[in-house]
Amino acid sequence: MAAAFTRRRRRWDTDRILSILLISPSIIAIGVFVYGFIAWTGFAALSRWDDIIPDLTFVGLRNFERLFDNPRFQQDISNTIVFTLAFVTGCILVGLGLAILLDQKIRGEIIFRNIFLFPMAVSFVVTGVVWRWMENPNSGLNKILDVTINPVLTALGGAPLHPGWFIDPNIGILGVALAAGWQFSGYVMALYLAGLRAIPEELREAARVDGATELETYRHIIMPLLNPITLSVVIILGHISLKIFDLTSAMTGTGPGFIDDVPAFFMFDTTFRGNHFAQGAAIAVFLLVAVSVLVVPYLIYNVRTETER
After folding, report:
1. Is position 18 within any domain?
2. Neighbour count for residue 221 (Cβ, 10 Å)
3. To which H or E segment does residue 193 belong?
4. Residue 10 lies in a domain
5. Is 155 a residue whose pLDDT tops 90?
């Protein structure tokens, strides 16, 4: 009995050592190339490195003070807030609406589901190029715009779109948010559809038996049950919007008067075009903190929820 226990103990120790050896390269790589570079970026943000030649003289929080006094960065923060609100709200409304529509067991559901998810198959760069091309003043698609979209907007009491509307100072970052919403609404639809399909049909039947209308059923039963999905959507889309770069870079750049500028694009400009590495590192640290403030509480909430289960 003792010999068998000793053999099992040795086998367990051997398996444990092999497991550690197996994952150690990944742990070392993550430690160096993720957390090591994060620490290096934080150190650079506290230095005087303002040229190609490194100057790691410690200056404290001076780079952050200069950053928040920069009018361009202030405009970037305003743009990010507007973009996030428009992007997240639009995706939730459109995605939830499409999910409810598909949940009605309509004919051809698989085809519609694939069509709605198709934009997720392309990158933000492709999305930005296509949307910029569609609104190019020299593009023949503007004739289609005048024939299809503009009459509808005019009939609804709105102003017709014009070529290059997405860089209009009166619209600003909302044009970019529209393109981002087009790409991610299908993804949100898939999340909500999975949540709707996970709700037992017995709950809906019980609500109908109690005299609840379809609207009351969605309001008082289904929507509260979808709150975890909504929270996940807000976290996922929120952190995407905070670090958005490729879409604005491909679609509008900074726009006239920085109306379409975002912190990530400002960081790229500052670091790799202006060689102000300490200032660029300060922007990177700000983005890391902003994303962490959004994501870390969500991770803690998920861990606590799983523990309670």
Report:
1. no
2. 16
3. helix 174-198
4. no
5. no
